[in-house]
Amino acid sequence: MEVERILRALGAPPDYADEVMALARVANTEWQVSRELWRRGLEKRQAELAALEAGATQLRYFLPAMVTGLLAIPEYVRASLEYSPGDVSKTVARKLERQAVLYDTAKSFTFLLTEQAVKWAVVEPAAMSVQIDRLASISRLPNVRIGLIPYGTRMSRGPMNTFTIYDDRLVTVEVFTGRIVFRDSRDIAEHLEIFALYEQRAVFGEQARELLSEWAEMYREAI
Question: Name one Pfam family in it (predicted).
Answer without folding.
Answer: DUF5753
